[in-house]
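# step 3/5: fold
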Amino acid sequence: MTEKDKNPKGRSRKSVASCTLRSQEMIQSYIFTTARYDCKIYEKRIIYRLILKLQEELEGKRLTPDLHIEKTKDDDRVVTIRISEFLFDGEHATDRIKAALLSLRNKFFICDNGKIWKIVGLIEKPNFGYKRGWVRFEIQPEVYRVLLDFSKGFRKFDIAVAMKMKSPYSMRLYELMSGQKDPLEFRITELKKMFMLTDKYSNNSDFIRRVIAPAQKELDAKSPVSFRFKVRKSGVKIFSIVFIPIVCQERQNPVLVERNLISQVSLMWDFSIEERKILYEIGFSDREIRNNYNLFRKAKSIVNLYETLVSIKHRSLTASNPQGYVVNTMKYIIGEIDANEK
């Protein structure tokens, strides 16, 4: 065993294997998607996991035992995540994660509202636990708000696809192309600023050859969305790139495709005014109805949904989790659970 395979106290490191990542839709702020920052591959993987977990916390989902988010009195978030969440399949090395944490710790942005000028680090107090195989760090409220700011729009993409990418530029172009229907034009100067490459590739043809073309190739090989591109010139000089999104139907995740279709369908087509009204009275939002869309549709094929909801409304409202009570009742109706689990 080499010195590199030992921790600072000389003990052998615990082997940390990567975890298999399931397909899961992530929503990323368009502000952050087009932000100017330079992140290497493991830094991007850490940020992806952070955004996904913050969204799950925001949606009130139960966090796994391998993740904790604690809110401090100063409104900071203390995040603890398993190291394996950031590794590629079959990978055991952890030195790259430490290097990524150090790099993220040294990144910052400036907040200036005219009254207060403040430098905000992307993450603070990174902590790497050898024995238990976890990472802990803090994020300030300003970072939290930027990562969840959807005021300028958002991008939806499958985190499992993004985490397969070996290039941060492939990741960022995958983010940009996801959900994009129309051609998207960027000046090369703006793309270089986004990727923090303003001091590289003085020849724009080299930028395309070394950054854009390899990213396109990786998306073609791994992603359900990719792009073709054409350049615009002023004389002989290339000044912008037009990205033309394309979709590979064979690589699309059918579960995520169905979920997106459901999200675009008006609830009025499948649920009557009375059915929607009583679901709202029980506490369901439109999003929660859509999350259980197929369940309610199956129940409707077996029973009168409105009459059933009326009959269980009082009991549901006295339950600790009214929506959960209704969902379990519907699962019982369609035979997914027995009476004891209800």
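# step 4/5: annotate
Residues 1-18 have pLDDT under 50 and may be disordered.
# step 5/5: archive (pending)
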